[in-house]
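tool=predict chain=A
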Amino acid sequence: RKQERKTKLETKKQNLQKDIEQIQTKFQNIENEQLDAFKQKIVELDEEASKLQEKKASNNTKLTTIQAEINSENKQIKQLQTNKDKCPTCSRDYSEEHQEHVSKLIEKHNETIAKYSTALEKINKASVTVDEQLLKNNQEKTKHQQELNKLNEAVSNNKTLELSLNHLKNNLNDVQEEIEIVDKEQNNELKGK
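tool=predict ok
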């Protein structure tokens, strides 16, 4: 009867040892440096995104200002064109000199508009570049965040495996102690005979 009990305990011991070996193969080697590196990269990408957002806001402010200047120049041209030939008060024709002067003013306003339009194009191009950089930054951050999530999940799995492993080792120790007790009982019985 004790031999039967010992055989069951030996089988249980072998099964526990197999389970322990199996769990040990499931552990993933994850260094804290890996986690820290991904966290640091995400912080850096957030800082970069913040700077890019500031650039974008600055560009938008410049665009609004330049557009307002262009509108102002266009209004002045329109006003000069409306009153180019006749005095708005007395409706008399202006002299040729006055008309020439007004034409030169309109030309100057058009030159100023051309300069503003060039600046507008440059800022629009810069804004497109910033938007592209923001998109790339966001994609890279998403990629790093997914990798960090995988690592965190692996760390969590390792902790669960550690708990299971400790539980199995404790069970194995209990079984080994029982086997020793059975062996002592058998030895005592043999000595007693």
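The chain is about 90% helix and 0% strand. The mean pLDDT is 91.
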